[in-house]
Amino acid sequence: MASQSIKIRSLYKIFGPRGREFVEQVMRGMSKTELNREHGHVLGLKDISITIPGGGITVIMGLSGSGKSTLIRHINRLIDPTSGEVLYGDADICRMDQEQLRQFRQKKTAMVFQKFGLLPHRNVLQNAVYGLEIQGVSKGEREERAQHWIKRVGLDGFSEHYPNQLSGGMQQRVGLARALTNDAEILLMDEAYSALDPLIRVDMQAVLLDLQQELKKTVVFITHDLDEALRLGDRIAILRDGEVIQQGTPADIVLKPADDYIAAFVKEVNRARVIQVEAIMGPPSASLARLTVRIPASTTVEACLREMSFANAATATVIATDGHEIGSVSMDTLISCLVGDEAAARELPSSAPAAALLSAME
Ligand SMILES: Nc1ncnc2c1ncn2[C@@H]1O[C@H](COP(=O)(O)OP(=O)(O)OP(=O)(O)O)[C@@H](O)[C@H]1O
Ligand SMILES: [Mg+2]
Q: Domains plus CATH for the chain?
């Protein structure tokens, strides 16, 4: 069965003993600072409405204190909302009784933590089977399932090792193997990769993307790193001071930042590696019959330029997964997208060969 989406509707979280009393004032515009100064309560989340599609990776991004952990903890109800709904399919997670909630947490969700959360006195295999052990799955079955995932995350031969015998990257692989062994539909990853060295981190991003191709879990991934967000996210939501200030695809965020704050964030991004031609293509064009290459809609601008350079083509025909033509892009369009603004685009000669552009991007 395809995973269901998680729908968060008008969610408010106000920390403090009388949180509910202040929801209305916050709705009417009371700021986080004022709430804290006047009433000693902390505004954690304000009017959050996000749909997290089943089977995709949704990234929650924002600076420290923006509410990322508070939000993800509502999904398995480690935190109760002050007001609002969190739905999984048709079930309202906030209305589940203790038993339903226990089942939901155990069977549907798995968390991967920044500090790995491994049990130090248990070896890799014993850590991986932990969730199934609690669920009462037989020893033979749980170990078979765990060994499969231990292998799959690249830890073949390490089952008997203890966490302190493993590097940070390997410990995080154990965290992932444990989550996958549970076979939960929802993976909640709160800054799971933030403690890793940069190269290991990029490795682990690749592991997740690779697994996701096959597994299609519903992944909620928190980070404060934009490159990580753009690489992993099918969708990204950006939080500031407990509010969602933009949500959309990586291309939406990079091409149409909602405000100066996000624009400043995305300024340094290599747009050509993020934006896919689908986001900038025009309609299919009959006049493009010659000197064109056919490229899939999910091709990045960078890869498209490379293809065009190889083929010495001035245009590309964009095709859907079933091969039919859905659009076209010209060299001009790609250049405008690359430089990010119209004025700069005009300064570049539109006849600039793709190869020269590619070397300028390095
Ligand atoms: N239990 C709590 N009691 C009071 N305030 C809290 C509590 N938990 C979180 N907060 C406050 O809610 C806001 C959001 O915190 P949260 O931990 O969700 O941020 P975050 O985006 O995860 O930050 P970080 O990147 O540092 O992990 C902050 O102002 C924080 O101080
Ligand atoms: Mg946090």
A: 53-82+96-270 (3.40.50.300), 273-361 (3.90.1280.20)
